[in-house]
Design goal:
Blueprint lengths: L5 E13 L2 E12 L3 E5 L6 H8 L7 E6 L5 E4 L12 H6 L9 H11 L15 H13 L5 E5 L7 H13 L3 E5 L3 H5 L4 E5 L6 E5 L2 H36 L4 H19 L27 E10 L2 E13 L4 E5 L6 H10 L5 E3 L5 E4 L12 H6 L7 H10 L4 H4 L8 H15 L3 E5 L10 H9 L4 E5 L3 H4 L6 E4 L4
Parallel strand pairs: 3-7, 3-8, 5-6, 6-7, 12-16, 12-17, 14-15, 15-16
Antiparallel strand pairs: 1-2, 1-4, 8-9, 10-11, 10-13
Length: 486
């Protein structure tokens, strides 16, 4: 594609949420018109912060950020804000415009067709599934016809058709687009380059090429950094050994030891800051606690959504789920998968029962099961019958949640950190049943094989909804319930 002039420029931009916790440190990069750019970085590195700086929701502490020719900007956020949930579709889209729009109904119809969604104008946002809400968020940005489109994890909750539709749209989109996503295949279909946010140095590096090509460049750079440091460490240790030997000698030998000390200090100064954001979580086990001998879950019937109305369906073959078994629940966005899981977890699904005294671990795709006003430490502590300080910190660290991060309120964590916090909670909870609603949402793709392994080896029962088919394929699925075919 023929890219135009620079449309976004960061010039020595620094920003931190807390004085001693920098997010960006004199970041320099530019984005050209019509470019499709991916923003990479570890969960919590500050990728969404870059979007907030571009939209002027946040202001740089130093440096300058410019958007040329007053280009219009629209953002599709990761999750629907809670204050929007009670609005109707029409009220929701009306907020995209500063003036009253008399042909709003037609505009909404046109943009919903783009995101492949049918939605009555008087239906409330909270009545839509997570995948449908993701499409509404995207449509909200598109209806503004922005010069710069910002997409924050746009594939979360989307089914395969939704992702394919979005991919085709972005490939044809004639203007500038910046995307935060952990979906490697999705990104590789349209990316022209990558902005790489290093959570350790707080710098932004710019790469040109498709997504997989850039990943190769980054891995090669990391290998060079590791090799250089390994060589320097060997040289430093050799000099330190000589310093220790010569320091006890007299005269010239002591002077030589002093000179070697200076060389050691210089070598330590030249050590390269190796990238931290490519750390993956350690392999982990979710302990299962259940004394149930027979079925843990029995499903005889459930409701599905047909034309936005619930319809009760009786299963021709009832499902009994036992220890070490995994059930995959499938179906298109809006069919009622999340509604079914929520009712099952709450014990209100009339057509299904969970064996008494089975402890249930529930991963909600919107993290609404977390108390955002509690600290991350408290969110872990409440999962234990007898809280033990050392175990809580050790479990958090296993999921890259440092003692400092655990002091923060859950609401202040990045979406990816909230996801990892949920897995840390399961480890401490020791559930007999895991109900997992889109458990890959917001999670860095490097962690996914480790999470899939933990779920595959879980000794309890698992009920899973996921549109991440590569993730699902890493597990043994014992039974499948396709709501679209009932």
């Amino acid at each position: 594609m023929n890219h135009g002039d620079v449309i976004i420029r960061f010039d020595e931009v620094s920003f931190s949420h807390v004085h001693d916790k920098p997010i960006l440190d004199e970041a320099n990069f530019s984005v050209r018109e019509n470019a499709k750019i991916t923003i990479m970085g570890q969960n919590g590195a500050g990728k969404s912060t870059i979007f907030k700086l571009i939209t002027q929701e946040l202001q740089p502490e130093s440096g300058t950020l410019s958007v040329t020719r007053n280009a219009s900007i629209a953002i599709a956020t990761q999750v629907m804000h809670r204050e929007k949930l009670d609005k109707t579709v029409e009220e929701f889209f009306a907020e995209a415009f500063t003036k009253k729009t008399y042909n709003l109904g037609k505009l909404i119809g046109d943009v919903l067709a783009v995101v492949n969604l049918k939605a009555p104008l008087d239906k409330k946002i909270k009545a839509f599934s997570g995948g449908q809400q993701a499409r509404l968020l995207l449509a909200f940005a598109l209806i503004q016809k922005p010069d710069i489109l910002l997409l924050d994890e746009p594939t979360n909750n989307l089914d395969a058709n939704g992702i394919e539709h979005l991919t085709r749209f972005l490939m044809d989109y004639p203007k500038t687009c910046l995307v935060i996503s952990h979906d490697a295949n999705f990104l590789n279909a349209f990316t022209h380059g990558v902005l790489y946010l290093d959570s350790y140095t707080h710098k932004v590096e710019q790469y040109v090429g498709d997504y997989y090509e850039v990943l190769g460049q980054i891995e090669a750079q990391m290998e060079r950094e590791r090799a250089k440091n390994a060589q320097l460490k060997k040289s430093i240790q050799d000099k330190k050994d000589k310093v220790n030997f010569f320091a006890h000698k007299g005269g010239k030998m002591r002077k030589l030891a002093s000179k070697l000390k200076e060389q050691v200090a210089e070598a330590e100064d030249t050590m390269v800051d190796e990238r931290q954001e490519d750390k993956t979580i350690n392999e982990f086990t979710i302990p299962a606690f259940t004394e149930t001998v027979g079925p843990i879950v029995e499903i005889r019937s459930l409701s599905v959504m047909i034309d936005h109305e619930p319809v009760r369906k009786i299963l021709s073959s009832p499902i009994d789920l036992r220890k070490k078994q995994r059930l995959l629940v499938k179906g298109p966005n809006g069919i009622g998968k999340s509604t079914f899981l929520a009712a099952l977890a709450a014990g209100t699904e009339e057509g299904a029962t969970i064996e008494k005294d089975v402890r249930v671990g529930y991963y909600r795709q919107d993290f609404s099961g977390l108390d955002f006003d509690k600290t991350a430490y408290q969110a872990l502590e409440e999962m234990m019958d007898n809280p033990f300080n050392q175990e809580i910190y050790a479990t958090g660290a296993q999921f890259l949640l440092s003692s400092q991060i655990l002091k923060n309120k859950v609401g202040a964590l990045s979406e990816g950190q909230k996801g990892l916090l949920c897995y840390a909670r399961f480890v401490l909870q020791k559930p007999g049943l895991l109900i997992m609603d889109e458990p890959t949402n917001h999670i860095n793709f490097r962690h996914l094989p480790i999470i899939a392994k933990a779920l595959d080896e879980f000794e309890g029962a698992v009920i899973l909804v996921s549109h991440a088919y590569e993730f699902v394929e890493q597990m043994t699925i014992d039974q499948t319930l396709d709501l679209g075919s009932l």
